[in-house]
Design a protein that fits this description.
Elements lengths: L1 E8 L6 H15 L3 E9 L5 H11 L3 E6 L9
Parallel strand pairs: 1-2, 2-3
Length: 76
């Protein structure tokens, strides 16, 4: 089984690298098994998406997804 942690982000380019570094360090030290961190950019207008892509490229347990529409999504 794999633990999934999803981080919804909006305009977090400055905070994201530190948050992901702290989270992955904690998970590596405390989780006995597989985990993934999924950064979900929810319509950011700053450099959050570029930062998320770099973090995903640098850390094998980190993935990045981008939602084009900002805000909460509802089912049709």
């Amino acid at each position: 089984m794999k633990l999934n942690i999803t981080l919804p982000v909006l305009n977090e380019e400055r905070q994201l690298p530190c948050a992901v570094a702290e989270l992955t360090t904690f998970l590596r030290a405390n989780i006995d098994g597989l985990f993934e961190v999924v950064i979900v950019d929810n319509g950011s207008t700053d450099g959050t998406w570029a930062v998320a892509e770099r973090l995903a490229a640098r850390h094998p347990e980190v993935r990045a997804m981008r939602l084009a529409k900002r805000g909460r999504h509802t089912r049709p």
